[in-house]
Design a protein that fits this description.
The structure is a single chain. It is built from 22 helices and 19 strands. The chain is of the alpha+beta class and about 700 residues long. The protein folds into three domains: about 150 residues, Glutamine synthetase, N-terminal domain (Ubiquitin-like (UB roll), Roll); about 400 residues, 2-Layer Sandwich (Creatine Kinase, Chain A, domain 2), CATH 3.30.590.10; about 130 residues, Four Helix Bundle (Hemerythrin (Met), subunit A) (Up-down Bundle), CATH 1.20.120. The protein starts with a helix and ends with a helix. The chain binds adenosine-5'-diphosphate and magnesium ion. The site of adenosine-5'-diphosphate (ADP) has 17 residues, from strand 9, strand 11 and strand 14.
């Protein structure tokens, strides 16, 4: 099949297939569940399950799986076949409503942060009818939520779904109050732009650091990096292009709206952006996209790296979470319209986001914290670790004028005159882009730019939804008894902008002046995961999630423990990998090479020939080798001492402040030896070979 329109969604049990295959009444009941969140009875589920199974079997499926998103950060699946004995030694293919609705994977091996004792191993997966089932590799995939036997949430999808409900409920109340009585539902939408690296499989196979940790732990910079800006938007290489075409086709079959693809800043770095959809589907699709990116790479003899910082010295990879809110009538609530100065509804929603981001800036920082992202935030390529908002010139001026109580007239979108007759003139966007801001208004949506490339976007989105829902609820309370809604609104908007002005920053987020200024404004600047995570369970944050019914305090504490534990484990794996590489390959290679140099020096001396070059190199490398071996011992000791810590926060801090520092010191020496050691002796492919090897 070559026609993209026909290909699109071919492996998805989508609306059209439901309509074709379900009796009218069943279809209607299911639609109600999907659109209004009404619960589904077992009779309906039985019919749906049977239709799904028939469709899946016709398309070659033998198995089904409940697909879920546990706290590991990757998706999980357990496959069951459809076969059922019919009593005479043969089987029929069967799938019941009960099996569709509920699964019982053994939960004991998934992280639970101590909420669930191992003897209570039972966990449940529950069908999420709002995200369509799909087929991959002869299996019917059913998106599900995951909780423990006793009801504790063990996944990332459940809080996201709850937060979407909550935000909808609060936004609808407020819109109804403002006179929009027809609005029954509000949906948050997300379009995540995904960055990734693509390298040759053969190079990858020779790098234990990439294999075990997803990033290079050693590696001297190549003579060329990204300084020429020649990769960004550059012409796409044939091999990469073949990969991208294949990837698009696979994603389209799964109903993912893959839209944009281009080369990114670093050599070997690329990006894919889909068209936005609901937060829930966008999350499932982004998880799928990351998986399909990796699988498709295998077919092309390539490896897709989703780590936030695979290579030192060139940009790492992030993810831009474009986020907005719209009504069931399709009105985007963050669309300023032609006259934002007269659009109180827009101003109110904007004020809610501004207030939320200011009051919960720590949560936004925490939600993007990870061992990988620690390498990016605050370095000069990604937004800083300080959360602030960019509103652009026009909107920024409007907010200032509201605070100052001055009149404001927005500029009409200017016409861009190209000055060349054959080129059409066009309307300019109202605001330029500020690439340095972590949270930027971009026309009719916010772009949260601090996410790491491998992050599951469920977390940032449920935090964002919940904090905005909380502010909307406060606004509703403040306005609901007003006799003069118009003036109460204006007062509330003005007060809100005035109180939260400090979070708005339209300048260069990379500058040192901003760091100093942000400190004066009292904004938080948490530089690493342990520093950030410490504030996750602060009272105001616990209050936010418990009050809004998103997660309980026990669940939050569990999440806190899991994040810290995972951070330490990851750093431990990195340290052990480094030690392994240092002891088994790097030191032996340099010993061999210096041995050869020493032999040559002796030989040349005996012949009375100058051995100047060999001696210089021998001296330099021997010194570095000695320091390298000593640093290896220090790192070894540091890893062993980690056994002294039992508290997860203390342990994570120890890894960050001690083990990680030792790792950096060891790397520096290793990289410096690489620059002087013959390529014939160096045990690993170089940065140049990897980054320019495709
Ligand atoms: P850029 O790279 O310039 O930031 P792109 O066009 O590549 O912009 O990506 C913008 C992303 O924002 C796309 O995924 C797009 O679908 C998404 N987007 C556009 N409108 C909305 C919206 N209302 N809600 C959520 N996401 C949106
Ligand atoms: Mg972007």
């Amino acid at each position: 099949m070559t026609n993209t329109a026909e290909l699109f969604g071919i492996n998805v049990f989508n609306e059209r297939k439901m309509q074709e295959r379900l009796p009218k009444a069943t279809y209607k009941a299911l639609k109600k569940t999907i659109e209004n969140g009404e619960s589904l009875d077992l009779g309906v589920a039985n019919v749906v399950a049977n239709a799904m199974k028939d469709w899946a079997v016709e398309n070659g499926c033998t198995h089904y799986t409940h697909w879920f998103q546990p706290m590991t950060g990757v998706t999980a699946e357990k496959h069951d076949s459809f076969i059922s004995p019919n009593g005479d030694g043969e089987v029929i293919m069967e799938f019941s409503g009960k099996e569709l609705i509920k699964g019982e994977p053994d939960a004991s091996s998934f992280p639970s942060g101590g909420i669930r004792a191992t003897f209570e191993a039972r966990g449940y997966t529950t069908w999420d009818p709002t995200s369509p089932a799909f087929i991959r590799e002869k299996t019917l995939y059913i998106p599900t939520a995951f909780c423990s036997y006793t009801g504790e949430v063990l996944d990332k999808k459940t809080p996201l779904l709850r937060s979407m409900e909550k935000l909808s409920c609060e936004a609808v109340k407020l819109l109804n109050l403002l006179g929009k009585k027809d609005v029954k539902r509000v949906t948050t939408t997300v379009g995540p732009e995904q960055e990734y690296f693509l390298i040759d499989k053969e190079m990858y196979d020779n790098r234990p650091d990439l294999i075990y940790t997803g990033r290079t732990l050693f590696g001297a910079m190549a003579p060329k990096g990204q300084e020429l800006d020649d990769h960004y938007f550059g012409s796409i290489k044939t091999r990469v292009s073949a990969y991208m075409n294949d990837l698009d086709a696979e994603l389209w079959k799964l109903g993912v709206y893959a839209k944009t693809k281009h080369n990114e800043v670093a050599p070997s770095q690329h990006e894919l952006a889909p068209i936005f959809t609901t937060s829930n589907i966008a999350t499932d699709h982004n998880e799928l996209t990351m998986e399909i990116m990796k699988k498709t790479a295998e077919k092309h003899g390539l490896v897709c790296l989703l780590h936030e910082k695979p290579f030192a010295g060139v940009n790492g990879s992030g993810k831009h979470n474009n986020w907005s809110i719209s009504t069931d009538a399709g009105e985007n609530l963050l669309n300023p319209g032609k006259r934002p100065e007269d659009n109180l509804q827009f101003q109110l929603f904007l004020a809610a986001v501004v207030k939320a981001v200011d009051e919960y800036q720590d949560l936004l920082r925490i939600t993007v914290a990870s061992a990988g992202n620690d390498h990016r935030l605050g370095a000069n390529e990604a937004p800083p670790a300080i959360i602030s908002m960019y509103l652009g010139d026009d909107l920024g001026a409007l907010v200032e004028s509201i605070i100052e109580g001055k009149d404001y007239r927005s500029h009409k979108a200017a016409k861009m005159e190209t000055g060349v007759d054959v080129l059409p003139d066009f309307k300019k966007d109202n605001s330029d882009r500020n690439r340095t801001s972590p949270f930027a208004f971009t026309g009719n949506k916010f772009e949260f730019r601090a996410l790491g490339s491998s992050l599951n976007i469920a977390c940032p989105n449920y935090m964002l939804n919940t904090m905005v829902a909380e502010e909307l609820s406060g606004f509703y309370e403040a306005l609901k008894d007003s006799d003069d809604l118009d003036s109460s609104l204006k007062v509330l908007i003005r007060e809100t902008f005035t109180q939260h002005r400090r979070i708005i920053f339209n300048g260069d987020n990379y500058s040192d002046e901003w760091v100093a200024e942000a400190e004066k404004r009292g904004l938080c600047n948490y530089k690493s995961l342990p520093e950030a995570m410490e504030h996750y369970v602060d009272k105001k944050n616990v209050d936010l999630f418990t009050k809004n019914g998103i997660v309980t305090e026990a669940e939050m504490r569990a999440r806190y423990e899991i994040e810290l534990e995972q951070y330490s484990k990851l750093l431990n794996i990195e340290a052990l990998t480094m030690l392994d590489m240092a002891k088994k390959n790097i030191a032996p290679a340099v010993i061999d090479f210096t041995g050869e140099l020493a032999g040559n020096v002796q030989l040349k001396n005996s012949l009375g020939v100058s051995a100047y070059a060999e001696k210089q190199l021998l001296e330099s490398l021997s010194q570095k080798l000695e320091s390298f071996v000593r640093k290896t011992e220090e790192l070894d000791a540091a890893v062993r001492e980690s056994g002294n810590y039992s508290d997860n926060l203390e342990l994570a801090k120890y890894y960050r402040n001690t083990v990680f520092e030792r790792m950096n010191e060891l790397r520096e020496l290793g990289d410096s030896m690489e620059k002087e050691t013959s390529a014939d002796y160096w045990p690993y492919p170089s940065y140049g070979e990897i980054l320019f090897g495709v």
